[in-house]
Amino acid sequence: MQNQPKASWLLNSNQSREDLKDTKCAFDSNIFTYFFKDGVATVQEFYRVTETTPLVTNLVGVWSPNSGLIMTKLQKWDRRTDLGGIQMTAAVAAVTNRKSFCHLSLDLLSLI
Fold first, then answer.
1. Which of 27, 33, 37, 43 could form a disulfide with 13 if both were Cys (CB 3.0 to 4.6 A apart)?
2. What order of strands is seen across the sheet that includes strand 40-47?
3. pLDDT by 10s per residue, the chain, length 112
4. DSSP 8-state class, residue 18
């Protein structure tokens, strides 16, 4: 199965985000909110590191009639570097020749 592009959402929200507190959203979601205060729109992204962790918000841009839209230059994964203390286990295997790769692939298939 090919990777499907994720949808992006832009939601109008109140400043307190109280209306979003129970929202379920994945770490890799593309959900943005905006709210107006004194004629300026603040644009934030929000996500959860895991289903049970608190909602995380990052300021990603502001809009005003005079300046237009000014967005952060940081890429999504540069903004989401703090996993809140969650530890991930990972492994890397260096494959130096084709025979090693075939052997490694068969070993991994046996785990499924």
1. 33
2. 9-12, 31-37, 40-47, 56-64, 68-71
3. 345 557 788 888 876 667 777 888 889 999 999 999 999 999 999 999 988 888 899 999 999 999 999 999 999 999 998 888 888 787 777 767 666 556 555 555 555 5
4. G
DSSP state of 109: H
Distance CA 83, CA 53 (A): 10
- Which stretches does DSSP call E strand in the chain? 9-12, 31-37, 40-47, 56-64, 68-71
Name the pTM for this structure: 0.68
Q: Is the dihedral of CA 95, 99, 105, 107 positive or negative?
A: negative
